[in-house]
Amino acid sequence: MSSSRWSRNGRGLLALHVTLFFVFLYLPIAMLVVYSFNANDVSMMTWTGFTFDWYVRVFQNLGLVSPNDAQIAAGNAQLYSDPNLAPAVVNSLIVGFSSSSLATVIGTLTAIGLDRAVFPGKQIYRGLVMLPIIIPDIVLGIALLVFLSSVGLPLGRGSVIAAHTLFLTSYVTVVVGARLAGMDRSLDEASADLGARPLATFRRVTLPLLAPSIAGGFLLSLVISFDDLVIAFFTSGVGATTLPIYLFSAIKRNVSPEINAVSVLIVAMSMLCVVVALILRRDNRGASL
Fold first, then answer.
1. Do 215 and 163 share a domain, yes or no?
2. Average pLDDT, the chain
3. For position 57, what pLDDT does the model report?
4. pLDDT tens per residue across span 218-228
5. What is the pTM (predicted TM-score) of this model?
6. Which of 89, 115, 234, 244 could form a disulfide bond with 145, CB atoms 3.0-4.6 angstroms apart?
7. Residues 138, 209: one domain?
């Protein structure tokens, strides 16, 4: 068989592999989006018509739509009202933004220290910083639960923020560290040669160059925190239920159309974060050119 024929067959197999990969990856999400508009409130896999009722119900539970709205009081939107949805979203937002902000500050300083400082055991310390990424979530969740119980820290929103900050710091360290590895150190040296103090060099030279990676690390941390179930499940207490825990509990009771709508909104928020991160990355490349 000629090499050209092997090449054509190889391209065909590659195209088939890529197609099957993306179908397997995105078809469930596409089905979730489609059935979030299904008017059938009994069997979610039986299509009976198109409706926005479930999204209206979600917005009403979040307080974004008045319960006296005519569409709320009619049809399927009157079903599956759950007052626990709004507190779960609020908890997830507070935990996400708080832990991501703390992790961004700690992770950025850690990355700078690992890149610039020289001290004994540096490689061991670097490995320990990356350990939360490698450890399975369930092991980390149990370990954090045992630790929090041992030190007497009550389980609640604060314990979830502390737990998320712990493992999110590793992700920020990796993202910012990758940017530091590709930075031109001569810019810092030129700033020092011109008489700038270390703090001024950091504020005027290093920080602007790191800003896109810092923002990317923050967005990555926010998405991971908002999506986390296992660690939040072990470290949360009464009144600290996050959105993933709420969805996990709700789906065990009944797969309601409202759950599909909430899931689609989470996917949309995650995609928005990815778009923002890509824009920041493109702007950073344009500025460096």
1. yes
2. 80
3. 80
4. 988 998 998 88
5. 0.79
6. 234
7. yes
Mark whether 61 and 141 lie in a shared domain.
no
Amino acid at 219: L
In a domain, 177, yes or no: yes
Expressed as residue numbers, the domain containing 36 is 3-78
The model's confidence at residue 171, banded by pLDDT at 50, 70 and 90, is very high
Q: 């909104």: which residue's tokens?
A: 265
Which residues have C-beta within 8 Å of that of residue 174, sequence separation ≥ 6?
111, 130, 133
117 and 55 in a common domain: no
* Each residue's pLDDT tens digit, 27-83: 888 888 888 888 777 666 677 778 887 888 888 777 776 666 555 545 544 455 667
User: How many domains does the chain fold into?
Assistant: 2
Whether 92 and 142 map to the same domain: the answer is yes
What is the C-alpha R_g of the chain? 24
Exposure string over 62-88, b if 16+ CB within 10 A, otherwise e: eeebeeeeeebeeebbeebebeebeeb
pLDDT at 73: 47
pLDDT at 283 over 50: yes
Q: What are the tokens at 268?
A: 């949309």
Query: Which residue, chain included where needed, has tokens 């072990």?
Result: 234
